């Protein structure tokens, strides 16, 4: 029986591992092991969700249709590129802290908190709604992780999360939500006064 390449070359199993996922190695950063472990855990969650949002932008870039096709096709790809930059920054922060960055789509799918969209294409208004929902989830967890990193003394992670992750996500939410302003999707004017407005799916999926 023919062996596949992985079996033949033993490219699987613990013997190939240099460092276990979920562990952190020492770095002379003057940050406790516990602090780096906590930051790495939060960063990997945000990384998995950001990779999912990045890929959702590409899905929607390809599959968008309707009278706003061209502007959304371009906007989605611009945001995809910006999310791809965030992915790299988050992953390299994990490695900087001595951790192992989550990387492969199989692992990302098991880790992300963003709900899975169908393989089929959807109406542009539903695409926009899904993007806003994913952004809000990432914004929530990023604020929480930034606050926690600040409290435990990891100023570098706090700065990355606030300056690069939070601000870009907030700006993208503005651009995406303006596309559906007045459409009744993704919140109403009455909700604007709530302290933490949450999106609800009003469009037919
Ligand atoms: Fe393209």
Describe this structure in words.
The structure is a single chain. The protein has helices at 5-8, 33-63, 69-96, 105-111, 124-151, 155-179. Helices cover 60% and strands 0% of the residues. Mean pLDDT is 89; it is low at 192-197. It has one domain: Up-down Bundle (Ferritin). The protein is built from six helices and no strands. Helix 2 packs antiparallel against helix 3 (69-96), helix 3 (69-96) packs antiparallel against helix 6 (155-179) and helix 5 runs antiparallel to helix 6 (155-179). The protein is mainly α. The protein binds fe (ii) ion (FE2). The site of fe (ii) ion has 2 residues, from loops.
Q: In brief, what are we looking at here?
A:
The chain has 205 residues and is mainly α. The protein contains 6 helices and no strands.
What's the topology here?
Blueprint: H1 5-8, H2 33-63, H3 69-96, H4 105-111, H5 124-151, H6 155-179
The structure holds fe (ii) ion.
Fe (ii) ion is lined by residues 61, 77.
Strand content: under 5%
CATH topology: Ferritin
Tell me the name of the CATH class. Mainly Alpha
The residue ranges in which pLDDT falls below 50 over 5 or more consecutive positions are 192-197
* Strand segment tally: 0
CATH H-level homologous superfamily name: Ferritin, core subunit, four-helix bundle
Q: Please give the largest β-sheet.
A: none
Residue-averaged pLDDT: 89
Q: Count of helical segments?
A: 6
How far from one another are the termini? 47 Å
Number of domains: 1
Q: Bound small molecules, which ones?
A: fe (ii) ion
Return the CATH architecture. Up-down Bundle
Bin the helical content. 55-70%
- Shape, principal axes of CA atoms: globular
Question: Which structural class is indicated by helix and strand composition?
Answer: mainly alpha
